[in-house]
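Question: Hello, beginner here. Any chance you could explain the protein record under this note? Any guidance would be welcome.
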Amino acid sequence: MSQKAELPSLTGHRTKTRKRDEKKVNDPSGFRDSVIEGLARAGVGGVDLEDVEVQVDLDAVSKFLDTAGNKLDYRRYGETLLEVLIAGGLLAPGGSIQQDGEKGMVQTRACVFQDAVDLERVKAWDQVFIKLMRRYKYLEKMLSEEMRKILVYLRGFTQEHRTRLANITALWVASGLILPGTLVVIINEHQVKDSVALDFMLDVLSVVKTEKGSSAVLTLLKRSGLDSMLDQLFPTNKRTPENMKNAFIAAGQPDIVTYLAGLENAGAKKDIQRSLRISISDEEPTKEIIRDLKESVKKNGLLEQEAVAMIWNAVMSAVEWNKKEDLVHEQALKHLKNYISLFSAFTSSAKSEMILCNKVQEYCYDNQNFLKCFNKIVLLFYKTEVLSEEVILKWYKDGHVPKGWTVFMDQMKKFIDWLEQAESESEEESDEED
């Protein structure tokens, strides 16, 4: 039986690691030092920024950042780079500039916090970032990520630095340089309780309004998702509609107040519509429906014409309609007769009558089985005094909506002719009596 030869020993043999397999040591502090060293020479006239009297030359800053990307690893340390350009150094948890042993606080004056003294200077810094992003596109995504980190440190910054940060944040969200949803991170308990988050957001919105107009403010709130979270910017004991209204008016944002009122009104309408639909489906007594609806309309400050539109929608959605056109007409008229008193209670004005007339027109056009039923419904409402002669004639002349007008114009012609003739005869009789 043969014995296997012993394999040679590799003891003491040193294997070489390929360069691409070597792990690089993560050294954000070293990267920071390199950036700050380069920025130190960005004073006006090439003078070192150690002299506090020397102003920062933003063209020199842009030039340095453009060329430094060839030597420094922006892909790996992009967020560190952005942090230095915004705050002046690396941020420690809480928002203070990180201490570095014997070096102490390592920071530069060539940053937004230190140099962006007013909105015009902030705009100049904005251009520095835009040029940097054009040259190194991958930094755009990093900027949104970095801002998510910085915006939770608001309490750790001075009021002056918060204002400068708010100004440049406003420019970035308005231009799309950072994602609008980034702003949501400012809502956390430690920033909300002292109104830091609210004041910061009001500063952001003020700049957006100044630069882009009121419509841009509302667009930003919707895109960021803050439109439904505005109350969360306020301390718990101040989250009342009155406090919110006063805060936004004082900040020169009345459009936000109007928008919030619209949201509240829309929510109330949905609740009323749902309740009305349930009441009709459950065949509750019409008197009770009228009473409850009048209370809701008064409580929520709704207009009568809004109520009559809701009544029409609720009444017509409470039934499963017959698929056959000839049968659905009879079914519709019979169903509507049950709610004449409900319609009458909310058509005390010509405007409400016109709204109802147009709701009927739109419904009959959108639901083709009702196309030939329009004149019958209008006649029913006329005979039961829900719609007046004057409103019907006004609707026919110039009060109608465009939907299906040519069809309904032909349908209504005989009835309109009859109304006009009756009106003419009535005027003649009145003249004879005089």
Observations:
- The chain is about 60% helix and 0% strand.
